[in-house]
Amino acid sequence: MTGSTTARQRLTAELLDALRTDGGVRVVTGEPGCGRTTFLDHAARIFRPGPVRYVRAAHELDEALGTAGPLLVCVDDADLWDAPSRAALARTAARVRETAVRTTLLLTVAAHRPPPPELAHLPVLRLGPLTPVDAALLIREHAAGAVATAVLEELITAAEGNPALLLALVRRLSPAQLSGRRALPRPLADGEVLADVAGDRLPDDHGGLLLTTAAAARATGEEDADAALVLRAAHASANAPLPGLLTRSEGRLRFRSALTARAVYALATPEDRRAAHLALAEAATDARDLLPLLHRAWAVTGTAPTLAASLTSAATDPSSTVPPALRRRALARAADLTPDEAERARRHLAAAEQALLAGHAADALRLLDRARGGSVPASVRGGAELLRGAVLLADGPVEDARESFLLAADLLPAPAAARATLGAADAAWSAGDPTACLSALAPTRTPPTLPLAEACVRVPQGPAAHDEPARRGGQPCLPATPGDPGGPSAAQVGATAPRTAGRTAGHPPSVGDPSRDHRDGMRAVLLARFDLATTPLRRVVENGLHGTDPDHLLRSAAAALMLGDVTSARRAGARALAAARTSGSASLEPRALEYLAYAELRAGRHQLARTHAEEGLRTAERAGQRNTAAHHHAVLALAASIEGELDLVAEHAEAALRTARRHGLAQAATLAHWAAARADLGAGRPREAAGRLGPLVRPGARRGHFAVWMLAVPCFVEAAASAGRPQHAAAVVEDFALWAACGADPQAPSQLLRCRALLAGPDTAGELYLRALDQHDDSVGDFERARTELLYGKWLRRRRRLREARTRLEEARLGFERCGAPLWAQQAAAELRAGGAAPNAAPAASSGAGGLARLTPQQLRIARYVAAGATNREVALSLSVSTRTVDYHLRNVFATLGLRSRVELVRLVEREEKTGARL
Asked: Residue spans with biased composition (Low complexity) (predicted)?
């Protein structure tokens, strides 16, 4: 590898930073071509504390360690040293780790060779594959000319994250091939290229054990294989020593290097590969299972319609526990063996569906492109567009997703057309286009007959259009995010309606068509006909909760959130998450976590929302669902705005907005802007907060997403009043009153009274604040009550009613501390001091000598991870933040606690754990 990527550069810097305080030694390993030497060279270039010494023999070690001051010692390919030299190297590493010498020792060893026993006890850093983003950067850096997007994607897929293989493939292609003007060689990564990157000469494969192992892994797409099956197929003894390229653990055989496995398979003759697959099929205990059928499929050439049919039947068996990734491989291979064009397209479509469930969206799109042909029936073309819409809804421009769904609806018969209709509505909702949403939901998909300003609850440009829903006392349409075309709109910010919570428990499901019920209920909500929405949506909730299908459970959660039934939504979302994990449906996990995160956020449990969103962000990124990830970023920004983590708010809000702008996610954008404004408000910057929120909540073309903007109104009113511009907020308070009157959000009535108090004269404001506090008693959530206490306390202090003010401000401070909002607690404390009173001392349990209680929630989380031995990069991955953010927080942790090293932090955390201090 001749170049480096930003991610690798960051990893190197983080490693050097960690080595200064955790022992000073690390063994860097990875498969051939992963960039071990480049990693070492980059570490040498950026090491600033002192000189760098490359050591190539044992006798140079003592001379290097004799250098005064900080030193970086680099040893490349340490596993190739002879045993006595490795022993000397191990003694040097022990000296560095156990003494106070200021030396950093970096060793590299190859992961595809047996590990040297002398170095086995040393801490290891394994270099993983490049991310697709970093791989694309590397291609563009080294390609001779422009690279077509399709070629770029093929190169990234073929290289599987290996930088040396990626560069070898780029060098193999001509400028015409890179630009897409000429066809690519097939296979793109052939045996010669793979063997060249692997480097070491492959040993003779006596008995075929290496090839049989490679074939077993190749068929399933996994990195290992059933050891008993492979040994039977290769006629090898279970007690015989394994070749050095292989390792066995817990009944599984695997190559030490995935690249070597690919090279072994690619270099074998076609006849030998087919023989290995046939041997594996014959060694299987049940020839009717999917795996032996798949091996037989790889053992034949040309078409084999009977075998393809058997393979398809096994792969689509609903009672099978086979994971989606293996089903996808089986269906794709069955398609290759199918002579009939229409049937081949059906199997490619089925393979694409399984690829999407496995979390491989790009692979799904490639398979969909193959589900084409002149004789392909309309139902298959419609199914392909339905699935394409689902992929784009999770990871693409949502307007494109809507068009794919609408085309699918035209091509498909019922009930599949109903699923496509719901998908189109979901896409329009996510884009913030209520007209398109209503049009998609209409039976004939024509524009709504009612003027939109009169039909949609939260779309109108003035309060008049809200009169009808307000008179009905129904529930408003609630925020939603992208969803699955097969069912729910993925996660909706619903309001809580305690009177409906838990109503489904103990009752049998109602009879009805879930797709039609969901469509009718969603359309009735958009048209403000809540009298017509409740019955069908309640049926959707009940039917979903009485099953185990993750799609139906997600549909149930979506309907519950539109009803304002957060309890049922949380229950359905949690069950959907469990079902998705049990079935291996990687594409459903991030969406189920999205439901849970939004439901917890609307219920006032922002820390639980944060926990779900952090996990949801990781799963969304693994599944390639950038749109879903944007919504998780928005939740994390909102949670951080409560906790006062300003840098996290900015980071997550910007991440959400990057995708929102590119893919047209109006809802995620509105939530991200709201989070940034609430962070400004918490930091005592009301003018900036009002400036951000004004366009979102006031009537006009720039108003935020039609189902979200009203949630930000209380923040805007507070910001405008605090900035001395209460007149700017009067109109939106009347709009907000219509929302509060619907009764679906338990926080809204108290928030409305607080808003009116902020705008009222001195004669009535105090009474309004007291009424608001009374209303808070009917809803959960310390944060909103503490905000009302804070504003009331400020009002009292400015009127010199100091004793009353102190009581309210102290209640506010304690409330903010209870819910983990330290920046807001500081505002209350500052107001107490301004009124001549010092805040009460913190409870003894959180005032240990080390002062961990002084850390913010995010600082405390990071401190705990670091104290447990995690590197900055590992912390960043665990918390779904950038390493820059971890660096920033860790510096603040050290400054706040007066620490100088990670070792001191470990000791402090251990001490406070023993004394019972808050962790």
From this structure: 494-506
**Residue 387, φ and ψ in degrees, nearest 5:** -70, -40
Mean pLDDT of 346-352: 97
pLDDT band at 561 (very low <50, low <70, confident <90, very high): confident
- Provide the sign of the torsion angle of the four alpha carbons 395, 398, 400, 404, taken in this order: positive
Q: Which two tokens stand for residue 324?
A: 């989606």
165/149 Cα distance (integer angstroms): 19
Q: Are 184 and 150 in contact (CB under 8 A)?
A: no
At 408, the pLDDT band (50, 70, 90 cuts) reads very high
Mean pLDDT score across all residues of the chain: 84
Structure tokens at 454: 């009169």
Asked if 783 contacts 749 with a C-beta cutoff of 8 angstroms, the reply is no
Residue 690 corresponds to which amino acid? A
Q: CA 292, CA 279: separation in Å to the nearest integer?
A: 9
Q: Which of 63-72, 158-167, 184-193, 452-461 has the lowest mean pLDDT?
A: 452-461
DSSP E strand stretches across 121-245: 124-126, 224-226
Give the C-alpha separation, 792 to 769, whole Å.
Answer: 6
pLDDT confidence tier of residue 503, bands split at 50, 70 and 90: very low
Instruction: Give the residue ranges of DSSP H helices in 6-47.
Output: 6-19, 36-46
Between these two residues, 913 and 783, which has the higher pLDDT value? 783
CA-nearest of 772, 827, 831 to 796 is 831
CA distance 814 to 808: 10
Contact 648, 881 (CB under 8 A): yes
Q: With 60 as the cut, is the pLDDT of residue 488 above it?
A: no
Do residues 50 and 71 make contact, with C-beta atoms less than 8 angstroms apart? yes
Task: Average the pLDDT over 710-717 and give the result.
Answer: 94
Q: What is the DSSP string of 345-370?
A: HHHHHHHHHHHHHTT-HHHHHHHHHH
Contact between 15 and 27 (Cβ < 8 Å): no
Q: What is the per-residue DSSP string for 479-493?
A: ------TTS--S---
Q: Report in angstroms the alpha-carbon separations of 581 from 291, 633, 732, 778.
A: 22, 22, 43, 36
- Judged by phi (left if over 0) then psi (alpha if -120 to 50, else beta), residue 741 lies in alpha
Lowest mean pLDDT among 5-19, 522-536, 888-902: 5-19
Written as one string, the DSSP assignment of 161-196 is: T-HHHHHHHHHHS-HHHHTTSSPPPSSSS-HHHHHH
Checking DSSP bridges between strand 124-126 and strand 25-30, what pairing results, if any? Answer: parallel
Report the phi/psi class of residue 76: left, alpha or beta, with left for phi > 0 and alpha for psi in -120 to 50.
beta
Query: Which alpha helices (H) appear in 777-801, and where do they start and end?
Result: 782-798
Which domains does the chain possess?
A: 6-126 (3.40.50.300), 132-198 (no CATH), 844-915 (1.10.10.10)
Distance (Å, rounded) from C-alpha 363 to C-alpha 193? 23
Secondary structure (DSSP) of 266-311: HHS-HHHHHHHHHHHHHHSS-TTSHHHHHHHHHT--S--HHHHHHH
Contact between residue 306 and residue 241 where contact means Cβ atoms under 8 Å apart: no
pLDDT tier at 562 (50, 70, 90 boundaries)?
A: confident
**Are β-strands 246-249 and 252-255 bridged in parallel, bridged antiparallel, or unpaired?**
antiparallel
* 582: three-class secondary structure by DSSP: helix
pLDDT of 880 reads 66
Pairing of strands 71-75, 25-30: unpaired
Torsion of CA 728, 729, 730, 733, to 10 degrees: 160
Give the pair of three-digit tokens for residue 790: 């804070």
